[in-house]
Design goal:
Layout lengths: L5 E6 L3 E7 L5 E8 L7 H4 L6 E3 L6 E3 L6 H23 L4 E5 L2 H10 L2 H4 L2 E5 L19
Parallel strand pairs: 1-6, 6-7
Antiparallel strand pairs: 1-2, 2-3, 4-5
């Protein structure tokens, strides 16, 4: 029987990579992504002036706070991109099983955004931020198969 191909999706709000183990047990990155908004300031992401409301009692106008912080919106968009990439890789047959590795908030959001067929391939998750850990140092962080 063929051994299932296991991938690790390691992500945070601005960086992600897909990692697999080779036949010797060493980890290697298959694909990586970096958000174009990773190092942007929130004020740079929202370039338009905030909307205005007219007070009913006076002629004064007040700015409306945005419904969502632009930095948080950029993180959500990036997590959606990671989920879409996992779906396309799954359709290609790149992996049989998937382990998600991300900080708690990103992990929860990624689970919600995964398509049905991909979410069925998730065999585990780990609440850690390992995006800056090089491949050769992943072994102590990730449980052996």
């Amino acid at each position: 029987m063929k051994k299932p191909k296991l991938w690790y999706a390691i992500a945070d709000g601005g960086r992600a990579r897909f990692v697999e183990r080779d036949e010797n047990g060493a980890f290697r990155t298959v694909a990586s992504f970096v958000s174009k908004d990773l190092h942007s300031r929130a004020r740079d992401l929202g370039t338009d002036r905030p909307g205005r409301v007219m007070e009913s009692a006076t002629t004064g106008r007040s700015a409306i706070e945005p419904r969502q912080d632009p930095k948080e919106a950029a993180k959500e968009d990036f997590v959606s991109l990671v989920a879409e990439e996992l779906s396309s890789e799954h359709e290609r047959g790149a992996f049989d099983e998937l382990i998600l590795v991300a900080p708690a908030g990103v992990l929860t959001e990624l689970k919600h955004k995964l398509a049905g067929p991909v979410s069925k391939r998730v065999v585990g998750d780990l609440q850690k931020d390992l995006t800056n850990v090089p491949d050769h140092e992943l072994t102590p962080h990730l449980a052996p198969e």
